[in-house]
Amino acid sequence: MIVDNEVIIKTSMVRVLFICILVLSLTGCVKLALRFSPSLIPRMTQALFEECDPTLAQHSLPADLKLMEGLLKNDSKNKRLLTALCMGFTGYALLFVEDEDPERASQLYLRARDYGLRAFGLELGPLRGLKAEMNAIQKMLMGVSEAEHEALFWTTMSWNAWIALNLHKPPALAQLETAQAFLERVLELKPDYLYGAPYILMGSILAGRPRVMGGDEAKAKENFEKAMALSNRKFFLAHYYYARYYAVRVQNKELFFSLLKEVEGGPADKLREVCLINTVMKQKTRELMTRSEDLFF
Fold it and tell me: What is the pLDDT of residues 134-157, one digit of tens each?
């Protein structure tokens, strides 16, 4: 029987990593395992979004996140871990928590944001205040390379998601400008990331906020249409937020149902790498349809 040497090596590294976790007193072992298997953490997050069973993902994700937090204690500046934690907590809050428990989701988004900021070596204190140092932040953002776009996107996503849930609170209002600067840099670096997720985020913000706070229906539509085109209308996150924010904002009931029925009738696994997101969006679509009488007048 012929066994692929690469498979043996990767399997061995995974075993080494988990053995090290059981003996955390040997902190160097954890760092060594992460150093020699740098692709392990990204593959964990990749496997999460490829999972088509949302119940399995919802139950397993908290344990995965705690595992990564344990690893981080032994390698506190590991950018891969910090990025994965930012991504994981953001995804967990967005997909499984926000609709049922907005207050808990707010705390999870902050947790994700802080991990993301740490990936860029930012001081958290000044950013929690009412006046962020925009000059320093702009300088940092201009230094972010395209190779770091993933960490920047998930930091931006978690930050803006927290703001959206807390727009009635002064601290959230005070951070609008800073979070917007992060999003604008994401759009400069890689707007097509994750089938146009930065466009979806921008569209949701422009459609969800009043005009006095920067809302703009026409620009929101442009951003949603760009995202839809990037996935050939197969990434249902775009449909869902297009309907939830833009169609409701402009009171276009026909567009609302057209978008949601497209999700309802489409297969979730056409884009395997976002199968979890698509499956959850199909569930959320059914719930959103039941609220149509309250959303249109």
Answer: 777 888 899 999 999 999 999 999
* Spatial separation of the C-alpha atoms in residues 134 and 131, rounded to whole Å: 8
How many Å apart are CA 115 and CA 200, to the nearest integer?
22
> Which of 292, 277, 283 has its CA nearest to residue 236?
277
Locate all alpha helices (DSSP H) within the chain, ordered by sequence: 5-22, 27-36, 40-50, 54-72, 79-92, 102-119, 124-128, 134-142, 149-165, 170-174, 176-189, 193-208, 217-230, 236-241, 248-249, 253-265, 275-290, 292-295
Report d(CA 222, CA 199) in Å as an integer. Answer: 9
**φ and ψ at residue 171, rounded to 5 degrees:** -60, -35
* For residues 202-231, average pLDDT: 96
d(CA 29, CA 113): 28
Supply φ then ψ for residue 238, to 5 degrees: -65, -45
Contact between 113 and 162 (Cβ < 8 Å) = yes
Q: Which residues of 186-210 are buried (b: 16+ CB within 10 A; e: fewer)?
A: bbebbbebbbbbbbbbbbbbbbbbe
Tokens (6 digits) for 292: 């149509």
Alpha carbon 54 to chain centroid, angstroms? 16
**How far apart are the C-alpha atoms of 79 and 119, rounded to whole Å?**
5
Q: For residue 266, is it left (φ>0), alpha (ψ between -120 and 50) or beta?
A: beta
Q: What is the per-residue pLDDT across 12-63, written as a single tens digit (0 to 9) for each?
A: 454 445 544 444 444 444 454 455 445 556 666 778 889 999 999 999 999 9
Quick one: which of 245, 229, 276, 269 has its CA closest to 87?
276
Provide CB contacts within 8 A for 283, sequence distance 6+. Answer: 54
